[in-house]
Amino acid sequence: MNQTTGITVGGQRADARIALTSPDVDARSLYVHVPFCFHKCHYCDFYSFVDSRDRQAEFVQALEVELKAMSPAAGRLQTIFVGGGTPSLLRPELWRRLLQTLGDRFDLSQLAEFTVECNPETVTRELAEVLREGGVTRASVGAQSFDARHLKTLERWHDPANVERSLEFLRDAGIARRSVDLIFGIPGQTLAEWEADLDTALGLLDGEGIEHVSAYALTYEQGTAMTKKLELGRLDAIDEDTEVGMQLLTWSKLAERGFGRYEVSNFARAGAECLHNLAYWRQEQWLAAGPSASGHARGFRWKNVPRLTDWMESVRTSDGWSSVVDLETPNAPRALAERIMTGLRLREGLDLNALQEQAGTFGAGDPLRREIDRFVQSGDLEIAADARLRLAERGWLFADGIAAALMGSLSPRP
Predict the structure, then answer these.
(1) How far is 300 from 364, CA to CA, in rounded Å?
(2) Where on the phi/psi map is residue 223: left (φ > 0), alpha (ψ -120 to 50), or beta?
(3) Count of CB atoms situated within 10 Å of the CB of 95
(4) Is residue 302 within 8 Å of residue 243, measured between CB atoms?
(5) Of 76, 143, 391, 407, most Cβ neighbours within 10 A?
(6) Whole-angstrom distance, CA of residue 276 vs CA of residue 82
(7) Which residues of the chain are in CATH 1.10.10 domains?
(8) What phi, psi does 375 have (nearest 5°)?
(9) Contact status, residue 117 vs residue 82, Cβ threshold 8 Å
(10) What is the mean pLDDT of each run of 10 residues along the chain (414 residues)?
């Protein structure tokens, strides 16, 4: 694989056409990646960078070309999600262009949710109004913490007070659905400090500021600056008992305030679940635009070529199609493993009968059932009356390990 020019199939450079130029595609979700940041946080492993050359306009122009090329593969879009990077760093006049392109190229008559990720420092009244006028219905604000010391550890350079200010701008513009992202398990963070972060988030705009909370345990991703500091002994990860205590506190406090846990790390008031992320977790089809954006259709998975320059060049020279890397072609065992990995994290769980039937097509039905029964007996999984396989209450703490064990049962043993 060449990470700058993509991969080849049949001697030709592969692009997203390999998955999308088929009448079987009826993607109802679209992800757009905006890679620009004003600072690269050292825990982040998403493709993002500080653009010292001001290529925002050039980026949007290439994005318009890519969206035009892939639009025939879309059905009536139900969800759009613009992530990054820092999408709210894009200038308002460029947002107008992008939003106009989306309206011109896609059928948005059934659009139920349009989310944009926002940084508290870059949300202005003008931007909020531009987003709402262009059809944005939901904003996800990256607070991460309200403690300046912990923000410094994460290298998040925003004033905690600006979280509420940005939510106020979004509310006043008419964007009714607002979410806040938080991180716990930050080096040096105590249980009391995490509780203070939760209390502050829940009290934003007199308790009416948000209807959704994403609360993630800090993950040390391979290749990030933060992981390197951990390896060098410049940071100390919090102990496991404290992290478990933070998880339990999160679940109980948010439940008390009317936020239901619908995924391991995501909580919402009734009807405010993130529909776009549910499409990911349910393994539905989605389109992907922008550098490093990942898509899924017809059993194919791919990632657009990373690096802004390479992505723009591939779009320019391939009729609007980005070259891809990490291309995965249809594979039944892998597809089932992915369904287990994401679906088990959901409160709704998985259709047990469908799992068994799919596993049976490649001879893994019995091993999978034995592994399921083992976790049911241990009290980590439960099978509901409607034959849905779900995490039991104690299983939520071990969701990744349980999913890994079930996925492992799909592989033939020597």
Answers:
(1) 22
(2) left
(3) 23
(4) no
(5) 143
(6) 10
(7) 332-408
(8) -75, -30
(9) yes
(10) 57 80 90 83 55 90 97 96 94 98 98 97 97 98 95 88 97 98 96 98 96 93 77 86 96 97 97 98 97 95 94 94 93 96 97 96 96 98 96 95 97 60
> Domain 332-408 class?
mainly alpha
Return the sign of the alpha-carbon dihedral for residues 20, 21, 22, 24: positive
Residues of the chain with CATH 3.80.30.20: 8-281
> Which stretch of DSSP H or E encloses residue 339?
helix 332-343
Question: Strand 300-304 to strand 294-297: parallel, antiparallel, or no bridges (unpaired)?
Answer: antiparallel
Place of tokens 């999600």: 81
Contact yes or no for 63/311 (Cβ under 8 A): no
The sign of the dihedral angle between the CA atoms of 40, 46, 47, 53 is negative
CA distance 242 to 192: 11
As a whole number of angstroms, the distance between CA 299 and CA 283 comes to 9
Superfamily of segment(s) 8-281: tm_1862 like domain (3.80.30.20)
What percent of the chain is helix, strand and coil (3-state, nearest 5)? 40, 20, 35
